[in-house]
Amino acid sequence: MQLEIRPDPAEVGRARRWARSRLAGSGIAADEPLAETLVLLVSELVTNAVVHTGSPAVLSLSLPGTATEDATVRLEVADTSERAPVPRCVGGEATGGRGLALVDGLADRWGWSPEGAGKRIWCELDRCAGRAEPAAPCEATVLYDGFAYEAV
Question: Are 89 and 125 contacting, i.e. CB atoms less than 8 angstroms apart?
Fold first, then answer.
């Protein structure tokens, strides 16, 4: 599934709506955390393409056809700019510059590759439904006055 993106900031909202509409037949519920993460990643990658390249782009989604326990969702944005994506370190007051850090923190994998006269940025999310187990209790050894205590 593909969506052509014009170099216009209004396209970011259109891309989010398009991604949500594609989830319906994929077996991923709109209120599932994976869906929200996917829409956020769409927003970040399309924003980067629109803001930093000023050129048209193509958004592609690869979604599972049915609800399966294990599935991978792949999102790609291809644009015609040869400029490599560069993660930035920004201060607390900055209003931008956190997009790739967000992608890095939310996606299971991400990367980019040159493609023709441009590039393709991609990320993947793994769906592991039914495998969530409660986190193990946090255990630590605390030293106090030279004695070790187990904290649970």
Answer: no
